[in-house]
Amino acid sequence: MEDKVIIITGGAGFIGTNFVRMISKNALDSKIIVIDLLTYAGNIENIKDLIDSKKIIFIQCDISNTQKIFDIFDQYNPEYIINFAAESHVDRSILDSRKFIETNVLGTQTLLEAARRNWTVDNGFKDDVMYLQVSTDEVYGSIEKGYFTEKNPLDPHSPYSASKASADLLVKSYFDTYGFPAVITRCSNNYGPYQFPEKLIPLIINNIVSGKKLPVYGDGKNIRDWIHVSDHCNAIIDILNKSNSGETYNIGSNTEWNNIDLVRLIIKVVRAEMEKNDGFQKYSKFSPNEITENLIEFVKDRPGHDKRYAIDSTKIMEVIGWKPKIFFEKGLRDTVHWYLSNQQWVKKIVSGEYKKYYKQMYERREVLK
Ligand code: NAD
Ligand code: TDX
Predict the structure, then answer these.
(1) Annotated catalytic residue 137
(2) Is residue 138 part of a domain?
(3) Domain residues for 58?
């Protein structure tokens, strides 16, 4: 990653922020350009210190805006492109899928085309350039037993995962058709700092702090494999440094939790953090002894809710030499601590559009007996 011009899209969102913060420390000789539309999920405050200190260049732009994206590529001639930008929430894709197609599919096509145009030379493509598509394990669909490898066919079920699968196929088509230098990563559920509180872990933490019930979909037995965001970011850096073009890698940590057990664990961790730190209690509507499993409410299930995601990450471990480092219980404690220590960040985010979304998604949702 040394001495490169790197474009990172979606760098003001959850994983993008963690990635930008990580590489701006490590890739000191590189020029880092962040492109982000700043949708409801993008927060310029996350990376403002890096913009102000000129460690990164920030451009507010829609990745599906062909002219603007072509102009940015002409101006900066990037060598690496890492595409995090996406509409990323399954529940929102069920409410309205249009933006998911525009950003996740057309946006990817625009970036691929801009790179193809910029990287083409007489006998193919420039040397030492790479496009990395950040995808998800959800493209494989649900698996009751065993694990998906990179060879499994794609079988997405939500509009979100269908849009991500479409983007993956487009990236693959560019490699197959033009020999375009690209890799795809498919990671499991991320957790850690800066995650928007529409996603399960920060939603539960935030609901406890703000005195709300804790909505668990269906019977709470759906299973996800959780990975700390910094392990995901390290995997991407290792792939950029070591991978051949045309490869796809699963990135997971074999940390399976069903939702109800996970919510019970978060309750315990939040309560313990509050008991340890008087400072946190002033933000909370509940006193520590009120933070119990009685707050859990089973609510009407997500339509098409995938039962279990589980991937086999042998390939990245053997070929690239990456492995996850963060033990889940420790990572979760640090994440809870981060949210309780950054209540101003949370309060700002949940004050606007999120209120409307929460009302629409949860307030009239059937409570299951
Ligand atoms: P996020 O929703 O937190 O952030 C997405 C970012 O993209 C935001 O900053 C948003 O402003 C920006 N964006 C949205 N539409 C845009 C557009 N048209 N043009 C430019 N920028 C736009 O998402 P996240 O959780 O950080 O996920 C990042 C990527 O990782 C996504 O591609 C997602 O599919 C993938 N992924 C996420 C997870 C997870 O658990 N969160 C797991 C695997 C893969
Ligand atoms: O209020 C809730 N109650 C609940 O029971 C929410 C928000 C979620 N859930 C359940 C649904 C899932 O089984 O928790 C599980 C996790 O849900 P999300 O946080 O919405 O994540 P998921 O749908 O698994 O998708 C995530 O992982 C893969 C990311 O949002 C995607 O961007 C990523 O690709």
Answers:
(1) yes
(2) yes
(3) 5-194+227-254+308-326
